[in-house]
Structures are given as C-alpha cells and as structure tokens.
Fold this sequence. Notes:
Blueprint: H1 8-20, H2 23-36, H3 41-53, H4 57-70, H5 75-88, H6 91-104, H7 109-121, H8 125-138, H9 143-155, H10 159-171, H11 176-193
Helix pairs in contact: 1-2, 1-3, 2-3, 3-4, 3-5, 4-5, 5-6, 5-7, 6-7, 7-8, 8-9, 9-10, 10-11
Amino acid sequence: xxxxGVSAQDLLEANELxxxxxxxxxxxxxxxxxxxxxxxxxxxxxxGIAFTEGGEHQKAxxxxxxxxxxxxxxxxAHEALGCAYYRLGFIEKAEKALKRALELAPQDxxxxxxxxxxxxxxxxxxxxxxxxxxxxxxxxxxxxxxxALSSIRLRQGELEAALxxxxxxxxxxxxxxxxxxxxxxxxxxxxxxR
Length: 194
C-alpha cells in the first residue's frame, strides 16, 4: 500500500471538529497528520487554523509560516496567519498577510472582512468599512461580517442600522458567542435609544 500523506478524510474530520468548536480534538488529529507528513501544506494550514481558533496564536503562526514556506500561494494560510498576527497584536503583519490573501482570493468574503477589520483598527476607516460592506454583500449570512458591519454603523452614529444588524444576529442561527455579544449590545443600545 502506498502512503500518499494526509487523507482527505482526516482533513474533513478535523474541519468537522472545528465547526463543532472542538479545537483540542482538531489539533490532536492534525498534529498526528502533520507528524506523518510534515510537508503536507493542507494539514499544516488546517493545524494553524485550529490553533488560531483555539487561542494558541504563537503555535498557529509557526504552523502557517511552515505551510507558506512550502507553498506560498495558499490564500487560507495567509488569511489565518493574518488573523493570528492580529490576535497577537501585530497589526501591520496582519495587514500584510491579509493583503496577500486578498491578492490570491479577491472575492473571498472572509478575507475581505478580516482585512476590513484590520484596516479599521489601523485607522483607515473608510477602506475598512468598504471591505466589510463588500464581505457582507458577498455573503449576507456571514455573521462575523454582520457583527463587524454593526460596529462600523455604531461608530458612524447610525444606531438604528446597527440595532437592526444586531437583532438579526440575535434572532438567527448565528454562532453563540456572536449571539451573546449582539444581545448585550442590543440591551445597551435600547437603553440609550429610550
């Protein structure tokens, strides 16, 4: 039997664990896969994403930089690297990684959203808002984009528009962490709007 590296089944199973929020399970599975084939860019990228989602951003950077040293044209690895850098407070590095991801995947709503958030943080409010709005236009069920857009609307003083977006997150099948944030913001906004 020929060993052709990490199986697609392993990657699918790891992705299912990530969707369920079982980051430790995904990391364990992907670490075994990477141990079997340390040059598998798909496994390294997935491992980096699992580390980032699980809050282990330094480990994510290491896995993602390794994947990109083997194959520089993986948009998902650049995006995840940008997110890890952002969470570590390296905003300029995050911008560079996300801009590279956007070059490789110009219509990827997640990349647009994440780059928009980074640009907003860097003070490029108009360009950041533009990218977040484009991400929302591409996928009106990207609850992270909806939440980011509500933050933009709040900063712009468009309280009713922000409230509408937040209520949508609270009432639909959004991830629980975003639902809880939205509910908290809604309560605060409704007190303010009284």
